[in-house]
Design goal:
286 residues; alpha/beta; 10 helices
Length: 286
């Protein structure tokens, strides 16, 4: 045990030392130093917060409150990573929609790995995410997700995915538990304000559960993080929460129209956010 702790401390010392050194180099304008410094800082923050999430979710499960685990962990990640990377998502309007009604299906545009920090900012109490089934096997992160009530979806098996959504709809109404979904299904890594095609699962879930859809739109932040160009800098990224969209009286036959109109509203807001001073700064390449 002492041998393990000693080697862990040595590893952390080297890791933190290297990260600090890279941050120092970035202050002198060394190319790509900021990218690697913030990547290292982000990975360490994610592991620490996921470990915290595992412990908190395990304790909350003993008291029957494990569905609060993701909210508490998300907030810890938001505050910690704001300090370790200098990146902050700022909600310009509509935050009340995340808190005033429960349950709802919350959806958001998906740009990069940095969206984990977006979740840290917008995640309301009594909410859980959906995630691809393979993440369940990832150490720390997967353990935390499993303990805290994540809905795992097997994207390669439509019957399994449908069954998971049916179970999620039942749990939403039983426990008044909201769910967050990225309807694009994958990261866009977009260089400009644009959205990929929307998958219909989130909208089928909302209709089946009879709950509102709450769209969250995050401005394009290619200027803050662009992995292909080895760019990762600090900055504030604007977000707007749109008015809830009711599914009252809708049936599965209405899902196509619901998907299309919701995407249109989100795309219009994404473009509008790009014209704000905050949006221009997030997209600006330095």
């Amino acid at each position: 045990m002492n041998f393990f702790l000693l080697n862990l401390l040595r590893f952390l010392s080297v890791y933190v030392g290297l990260t600090t050194f890279l941050f120092a180099l970035s202050n002198f304008g060394v190319r790509h130093a900021s990218f690697y410094a913030r990547c290292l800082s982000s990975y360490l923050t994610l592991v620490i917060c996921a470990t915290y999430g595992v412990l908190v979710s395990a304790l909350l499960r003993l008291t029957g409150h494990h569905r609060q685990g993701q909210y508490l962990t998300a907030r810890s990640f938001h505050y910690t990573m704001r300090w370790t990377t200098g990146v902050e998502f700022v909600i310009l309007s509509g935050e009340q929609h995340l808190l005033s009604t429960r349950p709802v299906v919350i959806i958001g545009n998906h740009q990069s790995e940095l969206d984990v920090l977006l979740l840290g900012r917008i995640f309301p109490p009594w909410c859980s995410v959906t995630a691809k089934k393979s993440l369940k096997r990832v150490p720390f992160l997967g353990w935390f997700m499993a303990l805290s009530g994540t809905v795992f979806i097997d994207r390669g098996n439509s019957k399994s995915a449908l069954k998971a959504f049916e179970g999620a709809a039942e749990e939403m109404n039983t426990y008044r538990q909201s769910v967050f979904i990225f309807p694009e299904g994958t990261r866009s890594y977009a260089k400009r304000p644009e959205l990929g095609p929307f998958k219909k699962g989130a909208f089928h879930l909302a209709v089946k559960a009879g709950v509102d859809v709450v769209p969250v739109v995050c401005a394009n932040y290619w200027g803050v993080l662009a992995a292909g160009e080895r760019r990762f800098r600090g900055g504030k990224i604007p977000v707007r929460v749109l008015d809830p969209i009711s599914t009252k009286g809708l049936t599965p036959a209405d899902v196509d129209d619901l998907t299309r109109t919701t995407r249109d509203k989100m795309l219009a807001e994404l473009v509008a956010l790009g014209q704000t001073p905050e949006g221009k700064d997030a997209a600006r390449k330095i």
